[in-house]
Write a sequence for this structure.
């Protein structure tokens, strides 16, 4: 059986709540979910598995059609994000035009939230709910046996016009059992990020699930229970990446430092093996201290991404962040002192937030002075408590995300919280936030002094020109 996993071309992605110019071409990072499924299938089956990353390769839909015509896959798999659903469906259309008998399997957050709507979209044959490694093998082994498939948890499919949903598969408790992602099936030398001076870069998960309960967030696939890989297993994968010639790993855990001892053990393992690969993490400001940061620095951690979200305690409390402004300031000061770069994430336009509050957030963003700042407009995403609150308070009428899931179209504009401040005003404040942060003279001079290569200069110059155009 020939299985092709596709990261589809991006041509018709729906508008987000960021100025589009900030979204284009600054990063090309590997499709981690597809690589995990490919790695599992290569270890556990004899199927012929390949990955097409159309985005990093710059493939158009026509290019993709010719590649698929040559490959003649029996099964095509893709990750479905709500923002990329239109591109996914365009690829589904191409696959079915080439061969109507090719089976299409979709997984991902959108599928998990809207299984009924997704399975009814043209050309979609199967959905995998939850973690893809759990159900993919039995699905492939029983593609044409609907009665057997009905006994396998984690699947959605049609049988005689009726939707069969077998429910979520149980979460994988021992993450060490999952094979490493099949990076070798991708053009891994081509991946890069504007925030890194290293190339190639890759992505990695060392844990799944997040125990925190922020108003704006949901993890429909991975659950709320924090499940972590062992320190040894993590360091084994980092060593394998280094041997491939990869220079930096972006660790995509929601909150890397939940388990303090595990962080220390990972750092110790890296130092014992004398690994030189760089890496960065995402965590909360209340999960770090001086000992943790010194160990991270000693293990070549280059950068920490902190979700701050707001610059007033009032809005932090509304968002249920469970942190204080003082904790945020201390975390950034201490991380800078230790010599690790920082990235700060903020949102504007949250419930109860006024223009005065947003201006305070912009001021606080400059006060903590991260190396990179990322600001977006607070968006009530489906399956979040924020979405329910927006519906309850009449900020959102009807159910726009579900309507989009039923009939996807490119002109869809995601709803935002406009109760206190209008959309137009929020976008003006968003532009103000970016410009006032990134075009401070001292900040610009400092960034220029840190440049390490011509390539890094051009990447950051490209980002700067995009910011100028907002």
């Amino acid at each position: 059986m020939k299985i092709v996993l596709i990261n589809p071309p991006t041509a018709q992605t729906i508008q987000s709540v960021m100025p589009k110019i900030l979204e284009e071409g600054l990063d090309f990072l590997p499709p981690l979910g597809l690589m995990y499924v490919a790695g599992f299938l290569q270890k556990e089956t004899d199927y012929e598995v390949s990955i097409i990353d159309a985005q990093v390769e710059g493939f158009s839909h026509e290019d993709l059609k010719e590649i698929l015509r040559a490959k003649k896959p029996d099964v095509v798999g893709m990750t479905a994000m709500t923002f990329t659903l239109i591109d996914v469906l365009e690829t589904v259309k191409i696959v079915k035009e080439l061969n109507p008998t090719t089976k299409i399997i979709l997984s991902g957050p959108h599928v998990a939230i809207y299984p009924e709507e997704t399975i009814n979209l043209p050309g979609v044959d199967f959905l995998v709910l939850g973690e893809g490694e759990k159900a993919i093998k039995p699905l492939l082994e029983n593609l044409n046996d609907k009665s057997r498939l009905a006994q396998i948890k984690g699947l959605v499919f049609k049988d005689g016009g009726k939707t069969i949903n077998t429910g979520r598969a149980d979460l994988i408790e021992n993450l060490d059992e999952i094979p490493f992602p099949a990076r070798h099936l991708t053009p891994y030398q081509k991946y890069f990020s504007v925030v890194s001076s290293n190339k190639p870069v890759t992505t990695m998960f060392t844990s799944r699930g997040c125990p925190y309960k922020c108003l704006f967030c949901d993890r429909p696939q991975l659950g709320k229970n924090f499940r972590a890989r062992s320190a040894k297993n993590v360091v084994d994968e980092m060593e394998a990446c280094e041997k491939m010639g990869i220079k930096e790993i972006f660790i995509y855990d929601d909150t890397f430092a939940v388990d303090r001892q595990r962080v220390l053990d990972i750092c110790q393992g890296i130092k014992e093996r004398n690994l030189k690969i760089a890496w960065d993490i995402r965590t909360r400001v209340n999960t770090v201290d001086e000992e943790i940061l010194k160990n991270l620095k000693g293990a070549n951690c280059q950068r920490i991404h902190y979700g701050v979200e707001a610059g007033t305690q009032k809005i932090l409390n509304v968002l249920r962040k469970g942190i204080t402004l003082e904790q945020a300031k201390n975390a950034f000061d201490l991380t800078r002192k230790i010599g690790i770069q920082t990235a700060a994430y903020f949102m504007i336009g949250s419930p109860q937030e006024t223009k005065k509050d947003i201006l305070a957030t912009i001021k606080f963003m400059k006060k903590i002075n991260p190396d990179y700042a990322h600001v977006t407009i607070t968006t009530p995403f489906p399956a979040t408590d924020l979405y329910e609150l927006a519906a309850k308070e009449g900020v959102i009428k009807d159910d726009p995300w579900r309507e989009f899931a039923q009939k996807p179209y490119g002109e869809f504009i995601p709803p935002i919280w406009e109760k206190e401040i209008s959309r137009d005003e929020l976008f003006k404040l968003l532009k103000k936030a970016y410009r006032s942060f990134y075009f401070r003279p001292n900040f610009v001079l400092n960034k220029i002094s840190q440049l390490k290569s011509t390539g890094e200069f051009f990447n950051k110059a490209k980002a700067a020109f995009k910011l100028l155009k907002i």
Remarks:
- The chain is about 40% helix and 15% strand.
- Residues 71 and 300 are 41 Å apart (CA to CA).
